């Protein structure tokens, strides 16, 4: 048989050796892939935490204390997130206190006090959505209460109370033409008369 022609047995043996080498190399390749994927995941997780930290720090610097507190809370023990969380919580505390006071005021029917407490909170911390919702509710309830007061006083002929209630409503919403027209009518038709007699001023 010519030397250049390999016997079937030789070919089988060479193939077996190649298979054996591949089998030997497979665990190494799998390990390399696993290490690469693991390193990639670790890098991605670190990058995500760094980005989240930067976002929370930016929110704190911009006065968005809710976003800052929530962001640092999610970061756990990453860098100084716990210290920053405490800082954001302390900055947010006065707003949360005003919110709680407003809830108590609304429950007690003191809508004006609630509005006074919530207005600066919503203005300075617009991301505090519960405060914005509560402010709208306080304004709605005060409007309903003032309308009821004005209607009851009108029925009783207490025009001074009617005027005061309508004036407050007009101040709360200067764009309400219906209230403005009604207030003008009351002032025109039921304004108190002032007169004096013997140096004494009387109101009728």
Outline of this structure?
The protein is mainly alpha-helical. The protein has helices spanning about 10-60, 65-75, 80-105, 110-125, 130-155, 160-170, 175-190, and strands spanning about 195, 200-204.
Summarize the helices and strands and which ones pair or pack.
Elements: H1 8-61, H2 65-74, H3 81-107, H4 111-124, H5 129-156, H6 159-172, H7 177-190, E1 194-197, E2 200-203
Antiparallel strand pairs: 1-2
Helix pairs in contact: 1-2, 2-3, 3-4, 3-5, 4-5, 5-6, 6-7
Explain what this protein looks like in three dimensions:
The chain is mainly alpha-helical and 204 residues long. Helices cover 79% and strands 4% of the residues. It has 7 helices and 2 strands, in the order αααααααββ. It has helices at residues 8-61, 65-74, 81-107, 111-124, 129-156, 159-172, 177-190; strands at 194-197, 200-203. It has a two-stranded antiparallel ribbon with strand order 1-2. Strand 1 and strand 2 form a beta hairpin. The longest helix has 54 residues, at 8-61. The protein is elongated, with a radius of gyration of 38 Å.
Number of strands: 2
Percentage of β-strand residues: under 5%
- The low-pLDDT segments are none
What structural class should be given to the helix and strand makeup?
mainly alpha
Give the strand order, joined by hyphens, for the main sheet: 1-2
Helix content: over 70%
Query: H/E element string?
Result: HHHHHHHEE
**Termini Cα gap:** 140 Å
């Amino acid at each position: 048989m010519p030397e250049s022609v390999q016997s079937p047995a030789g070919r089988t043996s060479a193939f077996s050796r190649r298979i054996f080498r591949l089998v030997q190399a497979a665990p190494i390749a799998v390990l390399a892939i696993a290490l690469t994927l693991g390193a990639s995941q670790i890098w991605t997780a670190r990058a995500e935490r760094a980005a989240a930290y930067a976002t929370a720090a930016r929110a704190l610097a911009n006065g968005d204390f809710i976003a800052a507190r929530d962001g640092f809370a999610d970061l756990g023990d990453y860098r100084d997130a716990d210290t920053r969380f405490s800082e954001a919580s302390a900055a947010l505390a006065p707003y949360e206190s005003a919110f709680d006071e407003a809830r108590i005021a609304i429950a007690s029917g003191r809508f004006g006090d609630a509005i006074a407490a919530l207005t600066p909170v919503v203005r300075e911390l617009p991301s505090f959505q519960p405060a914005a919702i509560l402010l709208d509710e306080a304004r709605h309830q005060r409007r309903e209460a003032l309308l009821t007061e004005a209607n009851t006083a009108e029925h009783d002929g207490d025009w001074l109370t009617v005027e005061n209630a309508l004036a407050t409503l007009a101040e709360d919403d200067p764009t309400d033409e219906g209230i403005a027209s009604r207030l003008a009518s009351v002032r025109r038709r039921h304004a108190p008369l002032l007169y004096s007699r013997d140096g004494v001023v009387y109101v009728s």
